[in-house]
Amino acid sequence: MKKRSLITNGPGHTILLGRSLGRSLVKGDVVLLYGPLGSGKTVLVKGICAGLKVKGLVKSPSFVIVNEYEGRWPVFHIDLYRLSHREVRNLKLDEYFDGDGVAVVEWAERLAVVPQGTTLKVCLRHVGPRTRRIRVYDFRD
What we know:
Blueprint: E1 2-9, H1 11-23, E2 30-34, H2 41-51, E3 66-70, E4 74-79, H3 85-90, H4 94-97, E5 102-106, E6 118-126, E7 131-138
Helix pairs in contact: 1-2
């Protein structure tokens, strides 16, 4: 496992980091995002989607749970913010982790187990009003 710690200075910088991460992803990858409200998870997803050649608006699926986007591969943007651990267990999320596309999960701490195929774990933290510390754990060999 490789670990990187980065500082981003505003949403634009976070999107650039996401774009770089997105370019490295392949079909079957799972990206888990951790961090408090407002830490930049959805902003990072916008960059990841840009790196995966998604066209159109990328927005948080908080109320619908999953947004699907077409890009280099299908992208499944999953947001577990409004759900309890029990509600998440009752969802059938495995189909999104089974390799037909790239799954990106916000609020991954609500998952009971880390999905097989997890490629990246990304932890975001506030450092200042616009500054974030982002730790990327890369499980690829």
